[in-house]
Amino acid sequence: MQIPKRxxxxxxxxxxxxxxxxxxxxxxxxxxxxxxxxxxxxxxxxRLLMNExxxxxxxxxxxxARMQHHFAxxxxxxxxxxxxxxxxxxxxxxxxxxxxxxxxVVTRQIEIDRMxxxxxxxxxxxxxxxxLMIAQLHGDPEVRExxxxxxxxxLARSLHEALRETIRDEAQSKGxxxxxxxxxxxCLQGYYVAIEEVFKSRGVSSKLxxxxxxxxxxxxxxxxxxxxxxxxxxxxxxxxxxxxQLGKPAQPKQARMLPELRRMMQQHGELLxxxxxxxxxxxxxxxxxxxxxxxxxxxxxxxxxxxVPVPAPAPxxxxxxxxxxxxxxxxxxxxxxxxxxxxxxxxxxxDLRARLAxxxxxxxxxxxxxxxxxxxxxxxxxxxxPDGVRQQLxxxxxxxxxxxxxxxxxLHDARHPARRLLDRIGTVATGITPEMACYPALEDExxxxxxxxxxxxxxxxxxxxxGQRKLDQFVSTLLPRGDVGLARCIDAIGAVxxxxxxxxxxxxxxxxxxxxxxxxxxxxxFITDMWSRVLVHPGGDAAASQAMLAxxxxxxxxKNTPEERAQMVRMLPSLVKRVREGLAAxxxxxxxxxxxxxxxxxxxxxVLGQRQPPSANAMDLEQLRAHFAAFGGEREAGxxxxxxxxxxxxxxxxQRGIRAELYTDAGKSAAHATDEREWLGMALxxxxxxxxxxxxxxxxxxxxxxxxxxxxxxxxxxxxxPSTFTRDALLAAMQNETLRTVExxxxxxRAVESLMAGAExxxxxx
Length: 766
What we know:
single chain
């Protein structure tokens, strides 16, 4: 993603206003702290503290104004110089450009750096995410806080310089700097939140390190645009294409798209010779950014199955033009060639756009037609996709454009059905590649899906969602079709998850039944952890296991009469025997089983020894049986992922004779919830990945995901046994880069990045 100037300008205002609030609070907090310090100060320090308080009271207004002035200047300078190569490299340093620095300058810098460290600690994690967002926007693989124009250094430097100018007494100035530093750190909370929200509202998110190849590819694409722009600007246009330079033609994508981008810039008055400046007109780069990254405003949720409502009608003239444009687009959509006739070259997106040159009646419609056409021109030249898939995605151009005219929000809504279908096709093509035997079947299925979209889409966006579901179902059956071992492993992880899910759902239900009973925690944990597994074990006596619930709870309650204690003594041998048999039936190891039984014995000894505290809601045996009768019948299954331990997964696969590399260590993942949702959204069957094995990355394909997303099965090149990740281990691996996606970004996002790079390249040469 390239540098959207508008985002930084929008973030500048909350940074300035936020600093004004921060500086005001800092001065007030410092005065309060000085008052507290004076009350407990030693006589030797009292005079200095009184002078500092007096200085703060006398010069507070001037100090505040100077802090605000310095910060505004530093911020403006930082926004102009961020990510510019203004620092001399080691090779450029010589005796001629070395400078002596006075001791007091070094001392001041040390003081500022000490404050910066405290501010940085107070501003995390918002500051860390902001640093990452800004690095990503500039296409830099290295996160460097010094390039963040909102970095803590500017806050500390503004305070230090303002204080040095206002308070002439050095000892007093130094003491006040320490006091004001502590106050500013204490008041910093929330400052970076407001700035971060500006970036988030414009569609920028911190993606951590799940896509380590993204920036390298983005930089290569950016360089190609810059070279092509130099050819176009330096040598003009010939036949609609950029001239060659030194006999080397520009890249086909840039050669086709740059003249169109230049035309759009000319239409907006950016490059017209002698044209007056339009101070409020957005440049092309900002226009692209605004169209594809609108602020996220609250709106009612839209389900894939519900048609998107058609917007309110435009004025009569605009409405007629819109109807005429849609009619022409619909005709193009229906004229797409049938599969049997696809040998000939089909018109490219810009060829189709040329046929629509005069059809758009309003400026917003013309911009949408132009930019969506350029977007698809980038997609059909996407080097990460096989040639066949690129051409197939080109068939989505017209229905996608029609959908954008109906619902402009789709262009900045990653969850819109049309975008999800587009991105899903691209993702599958990274894992199922042309050298694989099943690839032709994938291309045929994509054709079938697109045929359905072209035939049925009119205004109902669920047409795209239906196409994605059909493709997902096909991929889930395609991969194991010719691989018996893979099919067995997929069945195994499904069975393991189903068993764990039944136990998890049962434990949740039991927990709800135990809550009102005020049960001894030792018995409660045994029932929800151990006995829940017995209850769901296939082939067990479910009725007998369920009847045990009332007896287990009753046996742990206080016994107030000799009759109750006698009844319990008679019950215990049979109860312990049935518990032991139940644990053995589920394959519970002897050590774990003995520990569980020992825990039960301790509870029963406490009851018989009259050491058990009374229950707030004690019931007799018959009442407990009636209470647990609600546990019978079908229970509604949950949909969330379940936790599956390494030993449990290993035992289940060994029982079926299946070998697999297991990854179950969740590490110390500290990923943001937004990043986790995005990473899981990328982890779909058929997606291409790279897995770190013995210090190098090996190609891998995500072959299956268990129904509730608890287990992820990868086929790894050169390894006979598949690799299985639990959900938490997958997230940890993507965060620490031992597992990474082949795609540096979804297809749609890559195309937008490329458009931004083209607009930036032209803007830099006009």
